[in-house]
Amino acid sequence: MTALNDLVRPDRYPRSSRYDPAWLVGLDMGPHPLWLLEDLARDLDLRPGMRVLDLGSGKGATSVFLAREYGVEVVAADWWIPAEDAAAVFAEAGVADRVTAVRTEAHVLPFEPESFDAIVSIDAFEYFGTADGYLPYLVRFLRPGGQLGIATPAMTREVRELGAIPAHIKRVVGWEALAWHTPEWWRFQWEITELVEVTSARLQQDAWRDWLLWTRACAEQRPEGPGADQPVIDMLTEDGGAYLSFALVTARKK
Ligand SMILES: C[S@@+](CC[C@H](N)C(=O)[O-])C[C@H]1O[C@@H](n2cnc3c(N)ncnc32)[C@H](O)[C@@H]1O
User: Fold this and answer.
1) Ligand 1: does its nearest atom lie under 6 Å from the Cβ of 109?
2) What is the 149 CA–ligand 1 centroid distance (Å)?
3) Per-residue H/E/C for 26-63
4) Which residue puts its alpha carbon closest to atom 26 of ligand 1?
5) Is residue 200 helix, strand or coil?
């Protein structure tokens, strides 16, 4: 048994388990993106033919999954990854006719107002989505009744409430943990705008354990050795779910 085998879990993630774990790990940019998306999608209503923005799509695994699993048309928007690189992943996966790669920064999206039925964002919103003005900016791209869903690293309690970032987390991610808000924080932040109705806001069950399984599999597969992954493995092991999790938050535009 290798750690890669731990990434096939049809009982909990039946759709994700149909994807080659080596392919997924080869596109690694953070905790298992398909597990996060498959779980988030349980709180969304994605239907064939919908036009979906995958915001912060990285190397594209989630966009492939959206197109294949839900039959939606996807715009894969990302800032760090060149559109040509993502487009090559879509072509190889046979979804180039349904997924378009766009390189863009999340505050200057080059889209028409009300042009999407849904916007999803997997492990990316923490980089650009916590400012008070961001939700109002983003929902202009959703049609009325359109859906928004994010999966983003979370803590079980607000740093503000704790008074400090727990040492084992600060050692690895530093101030970036300030953006790892609780589901309740997201619910209030979005609902207070009166622009959306929050339809669910929850912690992913055992998210820290899923994250650990993923990081161990990545560590095992890296030709250069597991060095870069060890601090994350240590952080998650020490945490044991006390603070670290993922928030899955969904909403509908009014
Ligand atoms: C941790 S990676 C996750 C990528 C992918 N969703 C996944 O789960 O594999 C975070 C992504 O957020 C994107 N990102 C970060 N800041 C951004 C910004 N300001 N505008 C657009 N995308 C951004 C990066 O380009 C990166 O691909």
Assistant:
1) no
2) 15
3) HCCCCCCHHHHHHHHHCCCCCCCCCEEEEECCCCCHHH
4) 58
5) strand
> Going residue by residue through the chain (254 aa), what tens digit of pLDDT does each one get?
689 999 999 999 999 999 999 999 999 999 999 999 999 999 999 999 999 999 999 999 999 999 999 999 999 999 999 999 999 999 999 999 999 999 999 999 999 999 999 999 999 999 999 999 999 999 999 999 999 999 999 999 999 999 999 999 999 999 999 999 999 999 999 999 999 999 999 999 999 999 999 999 999 998 887 788 999 999 999 999 999 999 999 999 99
- 134 within ligand 1 shell (Cβ under 6 A): no
Domain boundaries, the chain: 31-205+242-253
- Fold annotation for 31-205+242-253: Rossmann fold (3.40.50)
Query: Sheet containing 244-253: which strands, arranged edge to edge?
Result: 99-103, 73-78, 51-55, 116-122, 142-155, 244-253, 196-203
Burial class (CB within 10 angstroms; exposed 0-12, middle 13-18, buried 19+) of 184: middle
